[in-house]
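Students often ask why we bother encoding 3D structure as a string. The short answer is that it lets us treat folding as translation between two languages. Here is a chain of 138 residues written in the first language.
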Amino acid sequence: MPVTNDDLAALKAPDLDAFEAIAHKAYEGLPADFRALCKDLVIRVEDFPTEEVLKEMEAETDFDLLGLFQGIGMPFQSVQSSGTMPNMIWLYRRPILDYWAEHDETLGAVIAHVLIHEIGHHFGLSDDDMEAIERRAD
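And here it is in the second language, the structure alphabet:
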């Protein structure tokens, strides 16, 4: 089916709300046993990381970070961890959209990859473990 000018005019990047909906759908596509371990994990979507985060992560540009885990990873939690802020995964919409535009993957697949990677930090998983989970999510 040919693409019309009206089709092209209607195309636009998802806003924060639409992006968050895509992220929730990608999260629901992750293996159930993996998601079950994430019950207290908060997932947030913002356009960009804060200046403080960029500086802390030694990022060169606003587009260097696709996501970020902030908190105390499960292997490092203890009773003394109570009363702290919840563990959070940040997804950064604009850098993810920029990455997506340059690669041959669906936006949902890119978001799922970032989620798995950041949740993997929550669990203290290795890159090999995260790749195995990604294969199961496909």
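Translate back mentally: The longest helix spans residues 107-123. Keep this in mind for the problem set.
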